[in-house]
């Protein structure tokens, strides 16, 4: 069993030290059966997703004018500002100095000394991506209702609908948007699908689609959603996504990519070139559902194979980055360099995307593209392992058919300096070489 | 109970104002002079909400098949479509935000819906005296598409990764370093294929053409701006003044449709440095009448001085506050109105307070229908949107 010690991020004001006793009774206005009766929260039901590939010129977020602030954005920002002024956050994130590090990629560094408590670190198991929900540990049914902003669901109508005062009904299996009381940036929220169903932190098709809906509906390319699996720095084993606004491009969004394959449903899968963490980029698809399902299939595959990963949903849901990683495992095995460990930066989805929150002033002052690169590179799978993982993913999403067509044709490894054939495994050509096939005719 | 998109037409600058500012900057003959240029280009104004096109050349109209009226007032994004490369769109967006030139191949769509590749070359045009971006000039040069490449993003070492599409084959086939990129192979592609190309590299001569076109347009603008008395130029000659907002901040703020102002507490008498269109409509003033002024011009004889005092205290303490204050408009009827005003300090990326935002809400509008956001939420959403815009605008690497 592999474990690491870290101080968990406090995302709710009701999150307590694991060792503390659970209080008897309530009165905290939480989401448990004790307080749920009579609870009301606005409900936003987003419109049915349109198909991006139909050739229509007007696409989601692609309007004739610079699009005005969308309704959902107003709702998120307005409710967040309300909680901000009510003092529900542990600190004022806008008072934290932040800068874009000079360099090709523009990594974003923030000096945030208050985000991480100077507490005793807790032990986290990092060798199991799938773990059962444990009701005794902190989960989102224990947050105070004041931390909830609104309910969110995938609507059936062609227009979005808003109900300012809807009862929170367990029978409806509501999904909610809550504040993150230790925000990385202004507007940092948590999307908790079917909160009362107490799902563990693992990707399923319906939930990822809900997250995509939110990205599309916000209609702002600077509003991204992120996901950390267990073992990839998720703190809470209760299914949730994170989201916030940052009106600069993330370095990962700037990385060049090379197409590997297109699925039968039109989803294009590329690998990132020249980025410290080897990642896949999913885009396209004949519908957003196709894109979502393909990524979900890939995630389910990773979960089955116990490979920790992060997901970044970007560009209003048009681009999804999938980043498998191994930092926690390395840390548990003592293989991470001490300088990197000292920064106490855990490479979760935002860090890997290029947004680094630094605890120490010296790290902030000395932040450079090289340092950021070096830190993130520790999280990346090796080239060999990445190829293996890709092969697993392609098989899982049903791409092996396409690869088989290339069998029987001379395969030459393009990037191998010696120029010789280089297959890491015997057997099928399809094992991991699809990305670098050259076909001579 | 469905949401309707808030009607934009009420709060955008009038056609007169748009025409007026363009002509005022360059003199009345500018449109005639620009019309004489053979190139396809557009000029956009980041200081008008929506960052719309304020001029389109006859060459542009011919290339896209639109009429002038169909183009003026629209954002450049209107000519993109579902197959336009997202990375290229991001590059353009970032170049605008950072107020620098960009040259990128782009798939655009004509009025008929047919796609075409062109080299998009855009430059900012700066005011010589104040260093701020006055307009963006965008030139479009059609690309013949002899060379194509896979991959996108930061232009790096993509050597050896050229691809060719054979006939109607949808799968790209790699030929590696065996095919030189300079060799132009006749590729018969129908329009469907155009959309499927990952990328379309412009030739050196096409790039030269775009640079020539950009220089021609800039030369005309420079000359005519001189006639009008306020020179523009292609390079920023002085640092933008403290009272001038970057064009990217103005574009972000232009997305907010409610009435609000930004004031700068670091300048003497805390002047207004930004006023939304809705604010001008609400108060009946023109933009040039309010910029640089302290908000007190909205107060009058019957305005409660205790409320003013309360506001002043909150500003000094750097705290948000909401007050109900009697304001005097400059509308035709010179009417007064009750303003539910919310003020809050706004920090920039350094973490220090850079502005105060004031969001006005006419008290009679408070009884809005229940299907909408609560007025308080709507008011706070303006504050939130301003916070995001201000914090990020200062993170631009220049």
UniProtKB/TrEMBL annotation, chain A:
Q: InterPro entries from the entry?
A: GDPGP (IPR026506), GDPGP1_C (IPR058865), GDPGP1_N (IPR058866)
Per UniProt, which keywords does this protein have? Answer: Cytoplasm, Guanine-nucleotide releasing factor, Hydrolase, Nucleotide-binding, Nucleotidyltransferase, Transferase
This protein's GO cellular component annotations are:
cytoplasm
For this chain, one GO molecular function annotation is: guanyl-nucleotide exchange factor activity
Give the chief site where it resides: cytoplasm
Per its UniProt entry, which superkingdom is the organism in? Eukaryota
- Residue ranges of the GDPGP1-like C-terminal domain? 251-398
- Where is it localised? Cytoplasm
All copies of domain GDPGP1-like N-terminal, residue ranges: 72-244
* GO term, biological process aspect, one: glucose metabolic process
The UniProt entry's sequence similarity note says:
Belongs to the GDPGP1 family.
User: Which protein, by its recorded name, is this?
Assistant: GDP-L-galactose phosphorylase 1
Species name for this entry? Brassica carinata
From TrEMBL, chain B:
Please state every residue range assigned to the domain named PAS: 49-99, 272-294
Give the molecular function GO annotations: photoreceptor activity
What Gene3D superfamilies does the entry give? PAS domain
Stored PROSITE patterns: PAC, PAS
Q: Tell me the Gene Ontology biological-process terms attached to this UniProt entry.
A: response to blue light
Question: PAC domain spans which residues?
Answer: 100-155, 319-375
UniProt protein name: LOV domain-containing protein
Q: Which NCBIfam families does this entry report, sorted A to Z? A: sensory_box
**Which one Pfam family would you cite for this protein?**
PAS_9
Q: Which UniProt keywords apply?
A: Chromophore, Flavoprotein, FMN, Photoreceptor protein, Receptor, Sensory transduction
